[in-house]
Amino acid sequence: MGVRALSLVLLLFALAACRSTAGEQRTLQGPTALEIWTAGVILRTGREPTFDERYQWDSQMERRISTYLSAHPEISNSPEVSNFTFLRQVAVGMSKEQVQLLLGLPVGAATDPAEIEKLARAYWPLIKEGQVTEAWVYPLGWRLYFSGPRVVDITQYLERL
């Protein structure tokens, strides 16, 4: 079985699992930069990124993270730096600047409490305790909630097929 065929089979299993599992989650760690970038490539081109595209993206991401850490040496020693540098995964406590560096600009944003409540869905009673002032929306159903400049909550909602 070729790599493409295996990828297709795994994708079908993942889609079947998504269909049969709950579509909502609240978590401390959100999407990875690779996950969001790959979803964007698939949405734009209808195919997965090539090896060369992935290599180029990876090199650019490494440079951006290195430049950011050079400009912010205080972050280099924080315990959460591994999420940012190695996993390239958004987590509660990260700044808006770090999120944008990893994931790019959101596909949507809300500052109105009623709109944020709609995005938070069933988790709103818990999320509003974090004094949420803004929510950003990313592909694959990810929503990041901010209190001022920091991520205070993360949810994901996937529509059932």
In short:
By secondary structure, the protein is α+β, with helices and mostly antiparallel strands.
Structure description:
This protein is α+β, with helices and mostly antiparallel strands. The protein has one domain (23-157). 52% of the residues lie in helices and 20% in strands. The protein is built from 8 helices and 7 strands. The chain has helices at 3-20, 33-45, 51-71, 73-76, 81-87, 96-103, 113-120, 124-127; strands spanning 24-27, 29-32, 89-91, 108-110, 134-138, 142-147, 150-157. The strands form 2 sheets. The chain has a 5-stranded antiparallel sheet, with helices on one face. β6 and β7 form a beta hairpin. The longest helix is centred in the middle third of the chain and has 21 residues, at 51-71. The radius of gyration is 17 Å and the shape is globular. The mean pLDDT is 88.
Structural class: alpha+beta
Order of SSEs, N→C? HEEHHHHEHEHHEEE
How would you write the strand order of the largest sheet? 1-7-6-5-4
- What is the mean pLDDT? 88
Helical content band: 40-55%
Beta-strand fraction estimate? 15-25%
Could you give a short account of the major beta sheet?
Answer: 5 strands, antiparallel
Q: Tell how many strands the DSSP assignment holds.
A: 7
Radius of gyration: 17 Å
- How far the N terminus sits from the C terminus, by CA atoms, comes to 27 Å
Report the uncertain regions: none
Number of domains: 1
> What is the 3D form?
globular
Number of helices: 8
